[in-house]
Amino acid sequence: RSDNHVKLVEVGPRDGLQNEKKSIPLTTRIELIERLAKTGLSFIEAGSFVSPKWVPQMDNSSAIMEHLLTTNIPSPVPVTYSFLAPNAKGMENAANILQQHPGAYLTQAESLSGAAGPPAMELAVFAAATESFSQRNLNCDIATSLERFRDVIQGAKQLGLRARAYVSVVLGCPFEGYEVDPHKVAEIATSLLEMGADEISLGDTTGMGTAPRTQELLKCIAAAGIRPEDVAMHFHDTYGQALVNTAVALERGIRTFDSAVGGLGGCPYSPGATGNVATEDMVYFMESLGMETGVDLDAVADIGQWITGELGKPNESSVGKAVLGA
Ligand code: HMG
Ligand code: MG
């Protein structure tokens, strides 16, 4: 792939929906994923194997995985579907479904070799850069969470799957404020890579991040020996800084970015945090820089307008509204 290619990871069906108060029909979640798969997006986060008591909206993620394994969903490019799994229980729930459908998904090796056929699957763990956020989000301290993630990552590898690992609150914590130590972020990211994670997604969960602090964080990540190709940035746009921070990350060689259609999103354990940076805004921004996303802007704009309407929320994508004349 050319140096101009950027990989966009669409997190709308997971991060985008997990915080909604109103119950979302399974058919709507599936329609969202199927429509996104047609736009040229090649990575779509589809659900989460977490406790339904903690995040009720992600209940039924099993049904979503089952659907993806048993339905031929047309897509212009091969798609990898990702699911969060915080512990052995989440891993087992995912593994049970996958093992019932051998051959219905590509392994990481097969998809890297360019094999045609069914979609690939990926599992994702999610650590936090502060102890307070780890406790609220995972009900355990950072060290315990990392031990659990080791099992999930190993389990994913045994199934032949790609493993993604998030580190949340890297540029600000809802409970500890701005003082998140970038060295701690680098240390956690290093542990996760050593466990076998294929990619670290650095999450600005609160959207408090600014350009200088993004710069400082990524310098620290590079100084720890972490390669830019192993890093993704996951910006929430609560303070409107997501694209500025994206520009900083691009300059530092990062080529993978998470976004959510319609600017959906928010973490239930990050009070006040709003949506992810909108996929429509990200595509427009990348194209303005001559970067290739492979994503059809008009198609994602339509989806953003549709899904925010379904949820009864305003469309948070400036670009989406502009291209639709809405
Ligand atoms: P816990 O209460 O400590 O878990 O929660 P436990 O092990 O003591 O088990 C308690 C009950 O939960 C048991 O059931 C378990 O079986 C069940 P009971 O016996 O009471 O009926 N349980 C599960 N059920 C389904 N799936 C599982 C599972 N594990 C246990 N995997 C736990 C610990 C990790 C489960 C909980 O804290 C949890 O589910 N947390 C998830 C929180 C979450 O999903 N947050 C949002 C995602 S992170 C995010 O949004 C940030 C990100 O976008 C990046 C960024 O923006 O920074 C990724
Ligand atoms: Mg998030």
What would you say this structure looks like, in words?
It is a single chain. The protein is of the alpha/beta class. The chain has helices spanning 12-18, 26-37, 61-70, 88-100, 108-112, 131-138, 142-158, 182-194, 211-223, 242-251, 279-288, 297-311, 318-324, and strands spanning 7-10, 43-48, 80-84, 120-128, 162-168, 199-204, 231-235, 256-259. The chain has an eight-stranded parallel beta barrel with strand order 1-2-3-4-5-6-7-8, surrounded by nine helices. Helix 2 (26-37) runs antiparallel to helix 12, helix 3 runs parallel beside helix 4 (88-100) and helix 4 (88-100) packs parallel to helix 7 (142-158). The chain is globular and about 45 Å long. The protein starts with 6 loop residues before the first strand and ends with a helix. The chain binds 3-hydroxy-3-methylglutaryl-coenzyme A and magnesium ion.
List the helices and strands and how they pair.
Elements: E1 7-10, H1 12-18, H2 26-37, E2 43-48, H3 61-70, E3 80-84, H4 88-100, H5 108-112, E4 120-128, H6 131-138, H7 142-158, E5 162-168, H8 182-194, E6 199-204, H9 211-223, E7 231-235, H10 242-251, E8 256-259, H11 279-288, H12 297-311, H13 318-324
Helix pairs in contact: 2-12, 3-4, 4-7, 8-9, 9-10, 11-12, 12-13
